[in-house]
Amino acid sequence: MVATTSPGEATPTPSPAVRIRDVVRTFRTRGESVHALGPVSLTVARGEFVALLGPSGCGKSTLLNIVAGLLPVTSGSVEVHGTGVAGVPDSVGMMFQKAVLLPWRTVRENVLLPLELAGGKKTARDGTPLADELLAMVGLSDFADRLPTELSGGMQQRAATCRMLIDSPELLLLDEPFGALDEFTRERMNLELLRITRKLTSTSLFVTHSITEAVFLADRVVVMSARPGRISGVVDIALPTDRDPEITTSPEFQSHVRHARDLLRDGDAEKGRS
Amino acid sequence: MTTHQMERGEQTPTPSPKNRRSPSSYSSNSRLESVPSGVLVATSLVLFCLLWQLAVSAHWVSEYVVPSPSDTADATVHLFRDVFTDSYTLNNLWVTVKEILAGLALAAGFGALFGVLISETTLGRKVLQPLMVALYAAPKVALAPAFVAWFGFGLTPKIVMAATIAFFPVMVDTAAGLAGVDEDQDKLFLINRATRWQRFVKLKLPTALPFLFAGLKSASVLAVIGAIVAEFMGGSSGLGVMVQTASVSFALDRVFALIVLLSVLAFLVYAAVALAERRIVHWRASGFVPVDS
């Protein structure tokens, strides 16, 4: 794939964080070709928080994995920060549904893993103060030397958040990061995530199947429908950037939720017709 | 059974109201459930020995065929005293211990190496794996005469036999462990652009370690069997030779005593491996039962 910051495009604005153009992905299972995704086009501006919302099987995780460079496209192209994606792009952090901490490493060692993989043990040692700072930010200072199994699910996800942030990635890919947590922990984690991402300049791509979660967190909700995964609409969230749980009862919030739900239903109905 | 499930099983509160049976009740015999397992084991052993003594005393079986438990106990005490006092016994024990440890070390080294080759290299997977499966199926004990022919009557054929038998579980478990890496953990390494070597050292090896130790535990017991079988086939010293000597003179009580000694030996090797496991695989609570998954 070719790196394209085309010379004709002489605009002073930097390239968007993510540019997805006509991406199609088909899987081969038992000789049969399954059309899983696309064509999908989407541009995410730098610093934007975009939620990918849709039912399971709509290809939202597939799309995220494509942006992460973990899955190749069948056709179309993906650029991250102006560079065509071939393999994992620079400066990307990822969170998964599970915390995915290595059980043989302490919490701090887990947080330092990206630094260690990028620059060896020395770099990791130098990053220790930053790791401790991040752990303090999410209230895990007392658990830095514990093993992951000693932590609750929510605490594990917090540690995973620190790990994602340790090398200050510009693009955060979040694959239903709180999907496995209970409702209360999940709400708390969402608040924390909102607080953290608002402080950073990084871009976030957040996959979820919860409508309220998507509306609560995102600047823009991209609604997807299944088989094949397509974008059925986009909801621009006109809410203040500082949000607290009370906002979910506001009429604006409710109207966004309704809008997203309508788009989800329409996507479903279309599928029913075809 | 995973450790999780076991923990949960232990935490299950004992149903206190008598007639209430929880639908998920996992044991029908709740009275035995409250007796410590050690007591049950001891009781069964005592009952077994009583029955055994009775069978001999009442002449249900001839004493030449089955020595009485008291004779066996005497012979065992005698043998264990000989270990410390009699140089002949001590030398034979030492020979067998050397065979076992050397065989186990070889099995551990080659088993881990071949496990890595099978799991990590294309050639290993395509060529080595089918070959190893074929060899795994072969009765390796039958190789003992060949080993004697190739390596003579010294320590070597015994060590090779012990290693050959003990090798397979180490190899199979290592390969399985390396292949059992969590998909998401692998993704985490990929997203952080880890090299293949980093993935191997920092992810696959730690994942495989508990499996490797499970294989080593099986191997520690098999190495004892291998050493003894090889001694049977052509040895001049070792506990296996002592077993043979005792059995041709119909001293079955002594044979039993030697089997007790060999079992203790096997258990000690096993316990040493288990202890090493607990220190090295410190992040997992492990008992004597190998944990899967």
Kindly describe this structure.
- The complex is a heterodimer of chains A (274) and B (293).
- Chain A is globular.
- In chain A, α5 (153-165) runs parallel beside α6 (183-199) and α7 (211-217) packs across α8 (251-273).
- Chain A folds into two domains: 16-91 and 172-249, P-loop containing nucleotide triphosphate hydrolases (Rossmann fold); 96-168, no CATH class.
- Chain A has helices spanning 60-67, 107-111, 113-126, 128-137, 153-165, 183-199, 211-217, 251-273, and strands at 18-29, 32-44, 49-53, 75-80, 83-84, 92-95, 171-175, 203-208, 220-225, 230-236.
- The longest helix of chain A has 23 residues, at 251-273.
- With 274 residues, chain A is an alpha/beta fold.
- In chain A, strands 6-7-8-3-9-10 form a six-stranded mixed β-sheet, with helices on both faces.
- With 293 residues, chain B is mostly helical.
- Chain B folds into two domains: 24-66; 69-280, MetI-like fold (Orthogonal Bundle), CATH 1.10.3720.
- Chain B has helices at residues 3-11, 30-33, 37-57, 69-85, 87-120, 122-137, 144-151, 155-179, 183-191, 196-234, 239-248, 252-280.
- In chain B, α5 crosses α6, α7 (144-151) crosses α8 and α10 (196-234) runs parallel beside α11.
- The longest helix of chain B is centred in the C-terminal third of the chain and has 39 residues, at 196-234.
- Chain B is globular and about 75 Å long.
- The N and C termini of chain B lie close together (8 Å).
- Mean pLDDT of chain B is 85; it is low at 1-25 and 286-293.
- The chains are: A alpha/beta (274), B mainly alpha (293).
- Chain A binds chain B through residues 68, 70, 87-88, 92-94, 96, 98, 100, 102-104, 113-114, 116-118, 147, 149, 173, and chain B through 182, 184-185, 187-194, 198, 202-203, 206, 281-284.
